[in-house]
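Note to self: the last two entries modelled the partners one at a time, which told us nothing about the interface. This time every component goes in together.
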Amino acid sequence: MTEIRDRIIQIVAEQAMLDPSELKLEMSPQDIGIDSLGLVESIFAIEEAFDISVPFNANEPEKSDFDISTLGAIVAAVEKLVAEKA
Amino acid sequence: MNAKRTKGEKTPKSERKPGKVKGKVKNATKIARTMLGRVIMGRHANGMRRVAITGMGTVNALGRDVPSTLEAMREGRCGIGPLEFRDVERLAIRIGGQVRDWEAETYFNRQQIVLYDKFTQFTLLAAREAVAQSGLVFEGELGLRSGVVLGTAAGGMNTWDENYRTVYEEGKNRVHPFVVPRLMNNAACSHLSMEYGLLGPSFTVATACASSNHAMGLAFNMVRSGAATVMLTGGSEAMLCFGGVKAWEGLRVMSKDACRPFSATRNGMVQGEGAGVFVFEDWEHAIARGADILAEVVGFSMSADAQDIVMPSAIGAERTITGAMLDAHMRPEEVGYINAHGTGTAANDKTECAAVAHAFGHHADRLMISSTKSMHGHLIGGTGAVELLACIMALRDGVIAPTIGYEEPDPECALDVVPNEAREARVEAVLSNAFAFGGLNAVIALRKA
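The predicted structure of the combined assembly is written out below.
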């Protein structure tokens, strides 16, 4: 599971042009400095990395089953999707 | 009538009468008067000509001509449904405003179809209707003084898609010789010029979702300035194919179920396809031949947000709305209806409403604003052209097309969006908004003829 977390941190850090060590799980995408376009791109990278399909509509992010409120929430949601796939 | 004067003697000012001079001077006067005449003939004090719309045509999900399209808008009918084309099962987004059961053979012969991508087919069919309505025949001088400006975002997308499939998926190493002339963005414009013998300025503009409005704005300015007598204008899009929808899917702004502009429950845009073509004609020319004038084009404004490649800016939209009214010498209180860009995305609709509220002040609560995309979908580069039909219907028939799919008020879109049902209302002036990806804005203003 730490493998999934580290890979997501790596993806998001690359998007935000930060060092992975600067990211904390309680940070929101805004805290990290990722806008809506950056978020869409990060989710695409996550889908590619784990071969999953993330249910995310930029029009209603809060209504989505996929919680993007914090980095930790994203990690948990991806872990769930990866587990469902297995 | 004058007493004889010796050579070199001046005629007293009081006795000089224009039109009575002779010889070389007469020619000079004639030239001067002709030049003066050009200025006086136009109705505008600045010498600009008035611009009449004397023909309109369309193909879209609501109908294959203007009467059926306007009837659907009056009834608030939805043209959006399940998409039907190859590989649609591999898409997450499977709805759209598709022109159903389209058979090119009904309208074109084999030699034409070989050269016409679907976006060209739509354009030509819409143009046939528009030109027939106008009654114009482009012969002699008129052909030389007439042209075409069209908008499209993706041009021959179906041709790209089919031929990529041929070489990449099917592994073939040969494609049809006419792939390039079929897919190029100016193909529809060129075929239209050939069909009617339009020898004047002709070109295509691509500004994503504002393409048609930019095209019509440019056509308007060409007729207004006297650079052309007639311009065929509007736009077309045929992006509903696997590659076209797959690309949009990636942006995650598409709805899986419906286009509900301004509703709190909206969850994205829905693509459409089709074309709208109009005849923009020099007012005096239209009057002289006794043409039926459908509406007058009176103003146009365009601008760039210079800010973000996808997120719209309320300030940019407001600037363009205000600019169109200034160009038209139109007071905000005169505007009775706005055909909104109204894509049904979270971002566009609230930004557009904020822009309208700022641009109109108190009058924002009195005007009507609707998004017909809820019925025909978002035709991307062709959308402004199809939406201009709703503007003409408002002016000419006194019917305001509704925003259908409206479920719940959104406090951030607190305007009269004409929810779900068309309304009868007398309006004298209207605007049509288009705010494209890339922050490129284009607003056009019309008045009742």
